[in-house]
Design a protein that fits this description.
Layout: H1 3-6, H2 19-34, E1 52-53, E2 59-60, H3 74-85, E3 106-111, E4 117-123, E5 128-134, H4 146-160, E6 175-180, E7 194-199, E8 212-217, E9 236-241, H5 245-254, H6 269-274, E10 280-284, E11 304-310, E12 315-321, E13 324-330, E14 334-337, E15 346-352
Antiparallel strand pairs: 1-2, 3-4, 4-5, 6-7, 8-9, 10-11, 11-14, 12-13, 12-15
Length: about 350
């Protein structure tokens, strides 16, 4: 079926696929890298249908080896398998890096809706192993999860196979770039921390960091100022990592070292009017969004919780729906609403007290 029939669930594995097909796809990533240094790279397709090995050594189901373009580049395959190598292994395999005898396996698990079945697939340069665990009639069972029941079998099987080493790095398909250590975008002129990454050609066209910027602060680094309200000798140009309020609200939960942008100095009112940094963002709902208001068990209409974020914690936000005043919030900016069907306009005003 087309991607449009599945919708967003497609990115989470919400489509049909047998273990045979899935293992073949993972084997294609491995085969793509194996072909990178092979003279048959442009004549042998990396992603092909599986081949059965019969007891007499003959092959069945051998696909036609037509010349095709590789849908996934060697560089993309390398980065994908490298990420799959870093997945935390189950049980006693957790400390695999501590043992020289450990095998390097790129692997992934999955669990179907309702715990009907579980699978795990792993690849090395020499082998692709797929494991399916479940009931033949499709009946679900609690605890039937890929990482718990299929992954241990996967690594036990790899333990029976000879080591296949690891994939060859494809230098001609990779490029080194310098990225911002805070945002991950291409490094800009105001990024203080940087790191070098190997990316595919598409990564060369990524956006430059727009979150690291130069701000002018007073000598105490407490206010934003400019030459109209502060002596030039007391202005401190400083590189700061600044996020929009909605992103900042999530980011600060896991990064205690994040420093919000200081406010403007009280006598720099004109600078406040000219700032290009938004101070207020609506987290939910998105502009133009369509909401479904549920009906509670008692038959009453439920409510949707609207949420906003402000870059300053000491502000009051006043909420209006279709020019009707709803109330004010401070600290936690949430407003439960149950608007009637139709289009509505939500207006937020913030005042610092």
């Amino acid at each position: 079926r087309s991607a449009g029939e599945y919708g967003l669930s497609l990115i989470l594995g919400g489509s049909e696929g047998s273990l045979w097909d899935l293992t073949s796809a993972y084997a294609g990533l491995s085969r793509r890298l194996n072909l990178y240094l092979d003279e048959n790279e442009f004549t042998t397709p990396a992603f092909t249908k599986p081949v059965w090995l019969l007891p007499n050594g003959a092959k069945a189901g051998n696909p036609e080896n037509k010349q095709v373009e590789h849908p996934i580049s060697a560089g993309t395959s390398w980065l994908t398998l490298k990420a799959m190598l870093e997945v935390v292994r189950p049980g006693t395999e957790t400390a695999w890096r501590s043992f020289m005898s450990s095998r390097r396996v790129a692997w992934k698990t999955g669990t179907s809706h309702g715990f009907r079945d579980a699978w795990a697939i792993g690849v090395t340069p020499r082998y692709a192993v797929g494991v399916w665990v479940g009931n033949a009639d499709g009946e679900g069972r609690p605890g039937l999860v890929g990482v718990q029941v299929a992954a241990p079998i996967l690594f036990e099987l790899f333990g029976l196979l000879d080591r296949g080493g690891w994939f060859t790095y494809p230098p001609g398909d990779m490029h080194e770039i310098e990225v911002c250590g805070r945002s991950g975008f291409l490094a800009g002129p105001y990024c203080e921390t940087r790191k070098t990454l190997a990316v595919t050609e598409l990564g060369l066209h990524a956006n430059r960091c727009m979150h690291c910027r130069l701000v002018h602060l007073d000598k105490d680094l407490a206010y934003r100022v400019d030459s109209t309200c502060e002596r030039v000798a007391d202005i401190r140009p400083t590189n700061r990592f600044v996020l929009p309020p909605a992103i900042e609200w999530y980011y600060m939960k896991r990064h205690s070292d994040y420093q919000p942008l200081p406010p403007h100095k009280p006598d720099c009112r004109h600078a406040l009017e000219q700032t290009d940094t938004p101070s207020l963002s609506l987290i939910y709902p998105n502009a133009g969004g369509r909401l479904y208001i549920p009906v509670e068990l008692d038959g009453a209409r439920g409510r949707a919780v609207f949420q906003a974020a402000h870059s300053r914690p000491d502000v009051t936000i006043y909420w209006h729906l279709d020019e009707s005043y709803l109330g004010a919030t401070r600290d936690l900016h949430q407003m439960p609403l149950a608007p009637p069907p139709g289009g509505h306009t939500l207006t937020l005003n913030s005042v610092r007290v």
